[in-house]
Amino acid sequence: MPRTGTDGQHTVVGPGGAGPVGYSLPLSPTGRSAMLTPPPWHFSGEVVMVDYRVDPEAARRFLPPGLEPGADPGAAAAVFATWQWCSQDRAELTDPGHCQFGEFLILLSCEFEGRPMARCPYAWVDQAVPMMRGWVQGMPKQLGVVHQSRPVTVGRAGSRLAPGGRFDGALSVRGRRVVEASVTVERSTDRPPALHDVPLAHTLVFPEWTSSGGGPRPRLVASQVSDVEFSRIWTGSADLKIFQDLEEDFGTLAPLEIGEGHVFSYGETLHGGRLLSD
Amino acid sequence: MPRTGTDGQHTVVGPGGAGPVGYSLPLSPTGRSAMLTPPPWHFSGEVVMVDYRVDPEAARRFLPPGLEPGADPGAAAAVFATWQWCSQDRAELTDPGHCQFGEFLILLSCEFEGRPMARCPYAWVDQAVPMMRGWVQGMPKQLGVVHQSRPVTVGRAGSRLAPGGRFDGALSVRGRRVVEASVTVERSTDRPPALHDVPLAHTLVFPEWTSSGGGPRPRLVASQVSDVEFSRIWTGSADLKIFQDLEEDFGTLAPLEIGEGHVFSYGETLHGGRLLSD
Amino acid sequence: MPRTGTDGQHTVVGPGGAGPVGYSLPLSPTGRSAMLTPPPWHFSGEVVMVDYRVDPEAARRFLPPGLEPGADPGAAAAVFATWQWCSQDRAELTDPGHCQFGEFLILLSCEFEGRPMARCPYAWVDQAVPMMRGWVQGMPKQLGVVHQSRPVTVGRAGSRLAPGGRFDGALSVRGRRVVEASVTVERSTDRPPALHDVPLAHTLVFPEWTSSGGGPRPRLVASQVSDVEFSRIWTGSADLKIFQDLEEDFGTLAPLEIGEGHVFSYGETLHGGRLLSD
Amino acid sequence: MPRTGTDGQHTVVGPGGAGPVGYSLPLSPTGRSAMLTPPPWHFSGEVVMVDYRVDPEAARRFLPPGLEPGADPGAAAAVFATWQWCSQDRAELTDPGHCQFGEFLILLSCEFEGRPMARCPYAWVDQAVPMMRGWVQGMPKQLGVVHQSRPVTVGRAGSRLAPGGRFDGALSVRGRRVVEASVTVERSTDRPPALHDVPLAHTLVFPEWTSSGGGPRPRLVASQVSDVEFSRIWTGSADLKIFQDLEEDFGTLAPLEIGEGHVFSYGETLHGGRLLSD
Fold this sequence. Notes:
Chain A is mostly beta strands and 278 residues long.
């Protein structure tokens, strides 16, 4: 009988059914050395988000077969988030340097078989575990430096979450500024921003190392989340700069028009992926 | 007439009354290159704090002449804080990577001429500007890696600020864990923790570079703050570990007894220092 | 005909043969956004390495089916290296923040079908690109903080590569010290250290995201390298500390006995992986 | 009799001659907690340096009274260096994460009473100890991210120190690229680059915290070094970009003309400062 790790459903089994195990590398005798824990993963975050529009044709070139531009081609969003995460047993929460990370991502509106979804062409986080976990999901997370304003409730060094409050986000990659966003909130609503309220459609793919392999075919998947929770949504005017010197393809998603900005708290539990095509 | 920088009161003037200027190094033609802005500086922070007791004799050895152990010798606190700061014009707030920092410090109870004060023998921050600004005040800030739990309002990845909520802090210095603290809050009050509600007494001193100098004498100063603002104080049980392998003197301030922990928001404006002795 | 990226052999093709492409995520219209370039990758490094012995039974528990303990069970090495790397066109070399990284890894002696090889149960690097590239190879690289002495040729702040020269390495993971090594060199030879002169046998495996999947079976591979180049090998006495508080499985590989240490420069080109089993 | 720390000459004495001591903050019972050790400090470094010319009038505005533009007004240099340092007892060398740092600085040619010197208007390092030690000397070091090519002796991932070898440096400050330099070496000589072979003239000044103070007057000092050692100097063509978006005064020192570049190793011992004026 194959040896298993700490979680029956998610355990990697060594070739031939013995040897070190784990949900991910590094494999080890008990499976406890794995860098990643298996899902579900819980997330609680603070979000600063700017709606904007890109060239619809540029957006289309980032959509894999199966995804269509949908009803509002060119709709996009730039999303900064400060996260805490934990596994099912919530053990990581006692180690704040481990359970926290910052994230920036771009979302493009799209449809799968007529259903509204979002495609994430680029994402950066500032910790290795969420970066690698992104690739498990097909989410193209890289490592960057992310900063985002924190609302304050006392003192003068920051804005309250109240009309006139201003909240900024900034992304640097390899020592260069890549994105700056700013939202000045004016009113609060219960309506989540459109692109933050649809499923994400990712592409599962990983480089194949052996020439004899050829590798598994890319697969389109939708993330399966539960326990979605929004705070009140603070909305207002926004600004967004996407600097052009990172790389040519990234530059094609620069804003043609900037819409509203949103500041809110968001929670979800991420369970796994559902194949959209095979 | 001497050239001055952007702030008449605080400008450094070059020798002989000309040349580059600035509140601090680097001096430059307009003074705008200075690493530090002049006070006042505003601060808004989230605090996780643990009361504890050290060997009173160990604490006494950290008090300079003029400061006495006071009514409760051996009373100490370990304080984690996540700050935003800004200068008088609040310009830094639009750059979240610049206006935020994490801090850990130790406070020892003491008295100056019968008045309760606190002495900070050790402090670490994770940004260069607040480190250098600490030395301007006589506060012995060094660079470390500081992490602290963030209360959440949605989702499962963190604790609410409510009975049973747990909040952790961790400090690493040069790749080694130095402090871990944990507070499980049980009730809220309006009473600020004792050691966070008294003036800090620092020693102004800076190494003298020229042998002919000898340098200015160390001077005991109290920080001058205004606009102090506390949120409700969440209080409960606490844990605190101070690891012994950083350095011998630091190790003498390890906890003999651990008291309550506190979680709260705090704001203040820091204006300058008042000489306690000369 | 499917669209391809910049490299015919290594391009990922979108599902159905269209859409964004790339050797790795992120996929983009031209493939230029991919975080990873395809092999071959060139490496030039400075190595500080300590031979040591672990409990042979502990080592055996890290070997997957197909690998045997071999002629010298319990032989191990702790390897610090400061690398530069580049792709075939050497473009990364003009960006020193991109082409440099530090690494620490543990090697265990083993055999595949009677042929001496090395198994790497744990590795840490300080950059995201080599971490992710490790997982492409089946090498369990995580992110850590790695420091290593640099030999000097002038001045007093360091050792020459000469008898009596001392060279240290240190690894910290998540704010805790995990490994410290020290080598004092005594003589130079042309004989490469045994565990640095055999192929590495890794396990290709990646977490499966969809429940319908099950995922590809783990596969045992050997790295294919060419253009191996060693400098003179400086050898001498060594010290090695593996701290026990990282994680239980890691702790089973602590040294029972410490052998010689080696300091040398090493170059290789990495081309891909060859399946050892399927 | 006053208590003293570990070094009689450099010890800070508490006000009134008792209490905690140290060469610098933090003061502690034995003086061992001090962030800085007293000089002499030894340095061994690898340098990538580009000669260039700035607007002579812009350079003049950075010179304090007492320093004159000298024989070659507008001569400047951009210097990247990878350092190891240690105190007199060389204890720091066993901790490679502590004794290493990267540095970028700008040098302007000048004269004091007819003697050629260099003025450093801007400098960045990537560690806190050398930053603070810079301010002790009057050298305006701030914290930045510095990267620099490493010459290689084996493998293809880097250049040899030989004709045609290319060596790059890059500085980022607060997430923005500020300087990029590149040197392609062509020949080696024994003649040190002019601006790296003259004394540095700094201004000792530190912000005054108490309104009653006024603070010590700025003082012009020359660094006192011994045991200067150069390797062969590799010289060739160079490129240099100084980006304009850091800050206005810094931008005035952008290159009007780019000269030769140099790659070499350099060692020195720094003892203290000699007053040039008082």
